[in-house]
Design a protein that fits this description.
By secondary structure, this protein is mainly α. It has a two-stranded antiparallel sheet with strand order 1-4. The radius of gyration is 21 Å and the shape is globular. The N terminus is likely disordered.
Length: 323
Amino acid sequence: MAFSKGSWVAIAFLLFAALVSAANGDHKLSARYYDKTCPNVQRVVQTVMANTVARDPSVAPALLRLFFHDCFVNGCDASILLDSTPFFESEKDAVPNTSVRGYEVIDEIKSVLEHDCPATVSCSDIIALASRDAVGMLGGPSWNMPLGRKDSRRADKDGAENLPSPHDNFAALVSMFRDRGLDARDMTALSGAHTVGMANCVNYRDRVNGDADIDTSFAGIRRQTCPADRDIDGGMAPFDEQTPMRFDNAYYKDLIARRGLLTSDQALYGSGGSQDDLVQMYSTNGARFTKDFAKAMVKMGNISPSKETPVEVRLNCKMINWS
């Protein structure tokens, strides 16, 4: 059967409408979401992740951070991956995201999956799986990650500017996490992601140069790479000096020793009561921490975009379909 040019346009439009309307349908996430449509999805993600982390281990904590920065802006919808268009500014350009890395890993995974299972696996699910595998590759726990997320057709740079700050106090952190359906226990467990990775001087300069609640020897070491003079650019520092690339509970031991790198890290310990008890428990019971961390990652991964957000399964993670 021959089709006219007009017919092809109509078919393309109908396919586009079907993709968007299906994406907007309400459904629950499920770890078995792709069992029939793309059964090799987890193997593909694990393979690309293993090869990438073998070349550059620092990508693992970077992808864990990418998941957090995506989910905290209008839900887990891969909006952080979108490049700017005439209609919206990219979240990548928001100040808290200028040091976010790992976009090329998500693109590589997406490329393989588009070959194996075209127009099936969302970019937001790829981020979720990659962050889960990143934790495992650093020696941390694994878990069944619910899947079935869709990708936003717009970005929210203003929202990304309001991500939790490394300078926040405890009350501000609790409020921000609560607004996203996460309680203080979830927040404390998720903050344990800072047991791996590095922070830039601009994020810890205030802590090591003026905070009274800090171990003096630790502050002295960190000031060597991050002087008080704000006209001098400092260097990177590990969140945990002892095991900076192993996912363990050392972060909480650092907090008790007043060696938390960021103001927002140390804010989790020192006010007394049940919050201090929780940090102390995680510092002595690594199994409890990893169990709570996995549970909190699933809970954070369930944060959905608003009902007004147009969504789809993007064919290219950097841009919306049919743009």
